[in-house]
Write a structure and sequence with these properties.
Elements lengths: L4 H14 L16 H13 L5 H7 L10 H10 L3 E3 L2 E3 L4 H13 L5 H5 L1 E10 L9 E3 L10 E3 L7 E8 L4 E6 L8 H7 L1 H11 L4 E3 L4 H4 L1 H9 L3 E2 L16 H8 L8 E2 L1
Parallel strand pairs: 2-5, 3-8, 8-9
Antiparallel strand pairs: 1-4, 3-6, 3-10, 6-7
Length: 270
């Protein structure tokens, strides 16, 4: 059989003792973490969702004061349902903002499909062209994307940008409109490019439409409000800092970015 005599003797002895020549089950490499250390590790990442695995491995010691690798930390967190994901970038919300958003949702929860078909959702977005894409990760479970401690807050973008506007309704779309060579949009410019050129003609062709717009300074200006009122355009009341309530945020703006020739990974939106 071209094997060592000792090997044959050990296989014969194992067959006599266990009725098989297969290897005996072994315990494997001892765990470097105790169950208590596992709980402490998960607790630390639950208290600080943006704590990286590398930073946690440097602060954590296993049994016999041995060093722990970042992959070991990731495996321990993975067994508890925590995965490293890119955080949702959301606006800075106060308690007043959250309360107003809740009231708005409660007031419009009873709207039926016919009422929502009359709403024209609009969005004016600034696409930052040369903004760096920070690869920050947050540890969260499934369904925790919008938890307060899992959201990375930011205020505004910097660098070269492109401003555009568009709107969608139940079965139509309006735009896009590009604000060429416009670093700032005032009320006169907004009325010229958007309500006068698109909203009012669309309202004349469709009855009982409700126009939705954000609370930007140019949109909430008296000049804009007076123009919409004189043009008999009904405006949907909108809570402050609520981009996630608008369905255009989740689909149509990304489509506009592709039409404008902006790659999605390197493009940031306000």
């Amino acid at each position: 059989m071209n094997v060592n005599r000792t090997t044959t003797f050990r296989l014969r002895q194992r067959l006599h003792e266990t009725d098989t020549v297969s290897d005996r089950p072994i315990s494997g490499r001892p765990r470097c973490f105790t169950q208590r250390q596992d709980r402490n590790l998960v607790r630390n990442h639950m208290n600080n969702r943006f704590l990286s695995a590398s930073a946690s491995s440097r602060k954590t010691r296993g049994r016999n004061n041995q060093r722990v690798s970042a992959n070991t930390v990731r495996r321990r967190l993975s067994t508890c349902g925590l995965r490293a994901r890119r955080p949702y970038i959301g606006p800075i919300l106060t308690q007043r903002h959250r309360h107003q958003r809740t009231l708005w949702a409660q007031e419009h929860a009873a709207w039926d499909r016919i009422q929502w078909r009359c709403v024209v959702f609009s969005d004016d977005s600034r696409f930052c062209i040369d903004h760096a894409d920070g690869r920050v990760r947050v540890w969260r479970r499934s369904g925790e994307r919008y938890r307060a401690d899992c959201v990375r807050e930011h205020d505004r973008l910097c660098g070269a940008s492109l401003m555009m506007w568009s709107a969608i309704s139940y079965n139509e779309r309006n735009g896009p409109v590009f604000f060429h060579n416009r670093r700032t949009i005032n009320a006169q410019t907004y009325v010229q490019y958007v309500p006068h050129a698109h909203v009012v003609p669309y309202s004349a062709m469709h009855r009982n439409i409700v126009f939705q717009q954000y609370n930007a300074r140019a949109q909430k200006a008296r000049y804009t409000q007076h123009f919409l009122e004189q043009s008999n355009v009904q405006v949907l009341p909108w809570p402050a800092l609520s981009p996630d309530l608008n369905p255009i945020e989740h689909y149509f703006v990304g489509l506009l970015a592709e039409e404008a020739g902006l790659s999605r990974p390197s493009t940031s939106k306000r």
